[in-house]
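Our working data are protein records whose layout never changes between entries. The record below serves as our worked example for the rest of this section:
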Amino acid sequence: MFNLLSSLVERSADWDRLEADIVGCRACPRLVAWREQVARERRAAFRDETYWGRGVPGFGDHNARILVLGLAPAAHGANRTGRVFTGDRSGDFLFRSMYRAGLANQPTSVGVDDGLRLTGAWVTAAVKCAPPGNKPGVDERDNCAPFLARELVLLEGLRVIVCLGAFGYEAACRHLAVAHRPRFGHGVEVDVDSGLTLLCSFHPSQQNTFTGRLTEEMLDAVFGRAVELARSRR
């Protein structure tokens, strides 16, 4: 029992250190300048709010069997609220689907104190700071890579990675050394030697959801499949 408790305490400390390292990171001058500029200038609708303006850690269940991997925090979403996929329409679309799949306790995500809890799922981004034009550079992507690597190590029960968009898919493939892989596409599945499955979805950006390229039914099907895979792989 003592060894189990000691292991749990150590693992919790590892999560705390990872969060602190992400929040305090200033490795990419362009991203630091941008996230802080956005936090100072603010969008008119949020002019009375205090923006987060720092690196954004992942969020969810430390015992997750499903990892949801996006691109980067939105400038006026997670860069404002401090929680990944929170406070923008992409997050609204995502968490509604996760709620219907039984992975979230509520369908809304507006702020860090809104009561949202995830069960069996962890949500994160390949790049932890909001990039200009939502396009991180290769060097910025590589600077953030160790953070995702640490998340993957700490998520000991992980079975499925839901890759939101081609950027998330490429990031997962790089980290897992998937050399031969199919082209990205909605619903594409890739089994990895480590026992993980990569499951692809179009990103829930407004560009995709407003045009109908990604519908709620399409995203629900992905999360339904993710839950099925997570339960079948013991």
Q: What stands out?
A: The chain has a mean pLDDT of 95. The helical segments are 2-24, 29-41, 78-81, 89-100, 138-154, 165-175, 206-209, 216-232. Residues 16 and 46 are 29 Å apart (CA to CA).
